[in-house]
Write a structure and sequence with these properties.
- The chain is 58% helix and 4% strand.
- The protein folds into 3 domains: 108 residues, no CATH class; 79 residues; 73 residues, no CATH class.
- The chain is flat.
- It is mainly alpha-helical.
Length: 325
């Protein structure tokens, strides 16, 4: 078998097992097809079912042509059983059809809230066009108009059951979170008594950055890769360490000293500390699992790998249609 002029040789046992593991890993990477459209619609669930169907057709094509090693047959049978439990389930197929109908409503919601094709997720200082009072007010008007249209459709009862469920979910979401969507402007006054309108940060980027910075420093100090254990048992006050980089904290609490200036004070404490008695000590550092090595994972994530999978699946599907005819 050839793909773009390249010969596909998987007759060996190791090669066959690698292909099967890669195919399974490709299914687990279904989130790559979502393009970030995860809120508030669980699009990855639909993509998972789609990839299971494609992988099942691909596997059937490989087995039907006898390309896999005979010793890998039991692994192929097990993978097929897992894929069939998802791709051929009547209940899952029905749910996918309903989710596709709901997707239309949620796609419109994402468009109204400007969640796609914008830098809304960035901090205000990093945006090309920082939010202003006029822009947020206009967005609020558009959202209110959109909610009015949904209410009319809800009363008319013209939507399908799945679409009606999506509309009810969207309206309930706005009823619960409307006060938090647009109330991010605070009115204050300067020393001269002039009114100053300030925009409060609307994302949790600062919190996430602090969390990422903490992980970075703990990894440097302990050499531990998996920090779930450490963060579950970390002292709550450890989060205050991030304040050492805060200019206001340095000026007010540390009397003008920077973090680097405190190194000599912390050094004796650090030397005397036995990290074996702290939550950051973790004995089970080895990661055991069924994931592919990073080098193989890079290959599976490439679009060319998906192209091969889809090509084999399409060839098998067309062959089955010809047999049925």
């Amino acid at each position: 078998m050839e793909q773009n002029g390249a010969q596909l040789d998987i007759s060996g046992y190791s090669e066959s097992v690698t292909v099967l593991r890669s195919l399974a890993q490709w299914v687990m990477l279904h989130g790559k097809d979502c393009g970030g459209a995860r809120f508030p619609f669980s699009l990855p669930h639909v993509k998972l079912v789609e990839r299971c169907s494609v992988a099942l057709a691909t596997l059937s094509g490989l087995v039907g042509r006898g390309l896999l090693n005979e010793r890998a047959a039991k692994h192929a049978a097990r993978l097929r059983q897992i894929l069939q439990s998802v791709a051929e389930s009547p209940e899952i197929r029905r749910e996918v059809r309903e989710l596709r109908e709901m997707e239309v409503e949620f796609a419109q919601l994402r468009k109204v809230l400007r969640l796609e094709g914008t830098d809304v997720h960035k901090q205000e200082k990093d945006k090309e066009r920082p939010d202003c009072l006029e822009a947020v007010s206009k967005l609020k008007e558009e959202v209110e108009s959109y909610c009015g249209i949904l209410c009319e459709r809800q009363k008319a009862g013209a939507a399908t059951i799945a679409q009606q469920y999506a509309i009810d979910m969207i309206l309930a979401y706005f009823d619960q979170y409307r006060a938090y969507l647009f109330g991010h402007f605070a009115v204050t006054y300067d020393d001269s008594g002039n009114t100053v309108i300030k925009l409060i940060e609307r994302s949790n980027n600062i919190m996430e950055w602090t969390y990422r910075d903490q992980k970075h420093h703990i990894r440097r100090r302990t050499g531990t890769k998996n920090l779930g254990y450490a963060f579950e048992r970390l002292f709550p006050a450890a989060g205050m360490i991030a304040n050492l980089d805060n200019p206001a904290y340095q000026r007010t609490v540390l009397y003008g000293k920077t973090r680097s200036g405190l190194a000599e004070l912390f050094a004796p404490l650090d030397t005397a500390m036995d990290y074996g008695d702290t939550p950051m000590c973790q004995d089970d550092c080895e990661e055991i699992g069924g994931r592919l090595p990073k080098a193989d994972r890079r290959i599976v994530c490439k679009p060319s790998f998906s192209a091969v999978v889809y090509t084999i699946a399409e060839e098998f599907t067309n062959a089955m249609l010809q047999v049925e005819q």
